[in-house]
Design brief:
By secondary structure, the chain is mostly helical. The protein is built from 20 helices and ten strands. Strand 9 and strand 10 form a beta hairpin.
Length: 607
């Protein structure tokens, strides 16, 4: 980890997260070779400018390369000529592709270039930027004593942001690569490296401490705090007390989950005590939201898509007020080329190889009456499979017959033909599965209507709906029943019902409310639906210790003919991919050149 520092910008841009500029060149030289500590660390504005670069260490996973893949679970099926995508490489057991992308295409957002903190979303990789961010956070913390002219509020927000980012980047790294050294000091470039790797639990507890300490120092709402007054109205993406608490809860829930807990105890079960601690942290976030103290709220249903994209000529950032944390809009225009192309077939102006929802994943979307499609009384039938589905199905999935073009040109492709022999049903270049992803596009995102020129897609890291669902999981696993709760707050089942109610889906059916296991199955399905294609599925399957099960390894497609009434005939499902998955695939392999830095670091088991 080398020392990188960019020159501090003018005061007018120091405190603005949106569009924060930064130098493209990084110098491997001491701090005082470019700018003195006196200039940087002795007044609040310059120190905050130094700290703000940490926000630019957040890669936009969807735009890190020209056409990458961030959905790496059982959710996405690449066309046969796009097997270089990261999810397809994982299907084939090539987990080392996280470093380079598949087939030499440099298609991985996890390790794309060096620690680039410019406004260019390309060349931003999670691995290098996390280590860079940890180093920078520690450098700031080590120099806080030089800040002699600041108010206590200013000192608090600086320390709070630095502690949060140190915990956050450690959490990001360990969620992919397992337990690591927890670096809480500035390492000298000449010191001998011999920091031992911690267990996952040990690493998580260190991060949880940083998150809790950060929460005590950060504002609940920057616009209502003295330090946020100068940039009032521009503070939506800054880390707050709620952000820190939400990540404390997520960090502890991951550590409590069966895969991680098994590393500590040997048992394929949840750690109840850590679940209770996670639930308590989540409850604090949700109470701040529900009382109106914080800015975070579930978006109303008519704005649901704004969680992941906006249509605006000025590139309006999506997500507010539901998205709790995510990357800045580095380059909104890249949504057209880096992302929309992945979901729009060539006849509509998209890529020659696209990503489609796997049919097995589409099956998680239940019915408008709230039941899973395979539940008694659901009303699902293969003769009319896309009628009366969960409203989120229509936001996320394009199925046969859905309108694809608003305008009158290109009439042959105005409506999706996804039946066998249909013009958008092509294994190599269009829909392989019989479905298309709808979540990130509209029927105007095509070369006829050109609405894609004004789309800004940003995949959130964490949104409030996820906090409700993680709270429910932590409560039911920590306290034992769907009706359990953190004292003086809502129950696990009530938390899930809040998320469902936003989508006008009825409450969880009583048949899933009488036992922990039955409720957990429905909660897992709810996460698949609500958080579809947001990059979380791979983590969920692993931490639940189910990724090795065949039902999560098999990816399917549907075959059918279109009947004279427009409904499918002879619909059947078949397996086309069986993912290679062994225990070693629970963690990504560490880079060999990093593992060999010193003997006590060690490679992940099996690699």
């Amino acid at each position: 980890m080398k020392t990188y520092l960019r020159a501090i910008l003018s005061v007018s841009t120091l405190l603005i997260v949106f569009g924060l500029a930064s130098c493209k060149k990084y110098l491997d030289r001491p701090l005082d070779a470019n700018i003195s500590e006196q200039d940087v660390f002795t007044n609040f504005r310059s120190f905050q400018g130094f700290t703000e670069e940490l926000y630019h260490c957040l890669p936009d996973m969807s735009k890190s390369t020209w056409n990458n893949e961030w959905n790496m679970g059982d959710d996405i099926l690449s066309t046969t000529n796009a097997q270089y995508r990261l999810g397809a490489e994982f299907d084939n057991g090539n987990y080392r592709a996280w470093q380079t992308g598949g087939g030499g295409w440099d298609n991985s957002w996890l390790d794309d270039g060096g620690p680039n903190t410019s406004n260019d979303p390309h060349r931003k990789g999670l691995w290098p930027l996390s280590w860079y961010g940890i180093r920078k956070a520690n450098l700031g913390l080590a120099n806080l004593d030089k800040l002699v002219t600041a108010t206590q509020d200013e000192k608090n927000v600086l320390r709070g942001q630095l502690l949060f980012f140190r915990g956050f980047f450690h959490f990001q790294l360990m969620s992919f690569w397992g337990g690591l050294p927890y670096i809480d000091t500035v390492l000298s470039s000449t010191a001998k490296l011999e920091l031992p790797r911690l267990t996952y639990r040990e690493t998580a507890l260190r991060a949880a401490k940083d998150f809790e300490d950060a929460a005590a120092l950060l504002p609940i709402n920057w616009d209502s705090s003295p330090v946020g007054d100068l940039t009032k109205g521009l503070n939506q993406q800054r880390v707050t007390s709620s952000v820190a608490l939400a990540y404390k809860g997520k960090d502890l829930l991951y550590a409590a989950s069966p895969m991680m807990n098994q590393l500590t105890t040997g048992g394929n079960t949840y750690d109840q005590e850590l679940c209770k601690q996670a639930a308590e942290a989540f409850s604090r976030v949700l109470k701040l939201s529900e009382t109106g103290a914080s800015q975070y709220k579930l978006l109303p249903w008519d704005r649901y898509s704004e969680n992941v994209f906006t249509i605006s000529p000025n590139g309006k950032h999506p997500g507010f007020p539901e998205v709790i944390f995510g990357p800045p809009s580095f380059s909104p225009g890249n949504s057209r080329w880096s992302l929309v192309n992945m979901f729009i077939p060539p006849p509509l102006g998209g890529e020659a190889g696209i990503s489609s929802p796997a049919a097995n994943y589409v099956n998680y979307f239940g019915m408008a009456n709230g039941l899973p499609i395979d539940a008694a009384g659901s009303g699902y039938t293969t003769a009319d499979p896309w009628t009366n589905r969960d409203p989120r199905f229509y936001k996320a999935i394009t199925y046969d017959g859905v309108r694809m073009i608003r305008g009158t040109a290109n009439a042959a492709y105005r409506f999706a033909e996804l039946f066998n022999g249909g013009n958008l049903r092509l294994d190599n270049t269009a829909s392989r599965s019989g479905y298309l992803v709808r979540k990130f596009v509209t029927d105007g995102c095509n070369s006829t209507d050109n609405e894609w020129n004004n789309i800004n897609i940003v995949i959130p890291y964490l949104r409030l709906a996820d906090v409700y669902l993680m709270y429910a999981e932590a409560v039911v696993q920590g306290y034992g029943t769907p009706q359990s709760s953190v004292p003086t707050f809502i129950s696990a089942i009530e938390a899930v019902n809040k998320v469902r109610a936003r989508a006008t889906v009825p409450d969880v059916d009583s048949r899933y409310a009488n036992s922990k296991d039955a409720f957990m199955g429905e909660l897992m399905r709810e996460r698949a639906v609500e958080l579809a294609f947001e990059g979380l599925r791979w983590h969920d399957l692993r931490r639940w210790n189910v990724a090795e099960q065949m039902k999560y390894r098999e990816k399917t497609v549907i075959d059918f003919d279109r009947g004279p009434n427009g409904k499918p005939l002879n619909l059947r499902e078949r397996v086309v991919v069986t993912r290679v998955f062994e225990k070693k695939h629970n963690w990504l392999p560490l880079p060999n050149n990093q593992v060999n830095l010193y003997p006590s670091f060690g490679q992940n088991e099996g690699w």
